[in-house]
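Note to self: keep these together.
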Amino acid sequence: MNSQITLKQLETLYWIARLGTFERAASRLATSQSAVSKRMQELERASAIEIFDRSQRGARLSAKGEELLAIAEKMLVLHDQIADVRASETGRPRLLRLGVTELTAMTWLPRLVGVLREHYPALKISPAVDMSRTLFSALEDDHLDLIIVPSAFRMPEFFSLPLAEVENVWMAKKGLIDTSRPHSVRDLAEYPMLMQGSQSGSGILLNKWLQSQGIAVQEALTSDSMTALLGLAVAGLGVSYLPKHCFSHLVDSGQLEIIRTEESLPPVPYVAMYREDRPHSLIHHVAEIAASCADFECSFQS
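Structure:
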């Protein structure tokens, strides 16, 4: 009886190619290195293809092996699409582990959830709201499928789909600073500054910008939570950079005011980030839906 090519063999080939060694592929697939080797031997027999270039060190694919890998990737994507159809037919929920920061949760997350439920009625969403760096670490460890964060992190195996930019301005309690004239950022740095720290994607990007401008902050109160910074600003404890449109109602009510500056703060770009080292049609589509929903200008959009 001729051997048959299995999806498990193709998945194993995929991970060997992406991770570079049998050992890493075995770890990712939660199996032994000997099991991985056996699957590749079976795949070579079934396909009659010498998959690896044995004149090279390591798990280097041959030319025919590269062709087989391209087919394997397509078949794995098709398998995911079949799983989507099966889930919608049986009503069995598929799980989406979605990570977002505070700002997304406070603005367009409700709208995103609504659109996802329209497209995938059987989809079960498991949300995580946390700091950008924590979400990125969870994505690295395969504890989340997709995160929506400022574009402050990069790794080769992750794909980032641009979503929208957030316009930030300096804000303070009314009367704390003279607003009859524009100030330099250097002038503002003489006041207590309410800043996000190293766990915040926005904080990473904007603090780097301050450093690039040669701004030395004299006194800083640091919190990775945007909500906490907002409360400190309303309390009159300092000057902070905050999203202009999302918190405009606090300016309209007189609780905060915008401080005009000679140098505009750079916009903070947000991305939908997910792993590229495993094809998954659902995650690709969710990222595209997120791009169509992303709007940081209004609170709790539905």
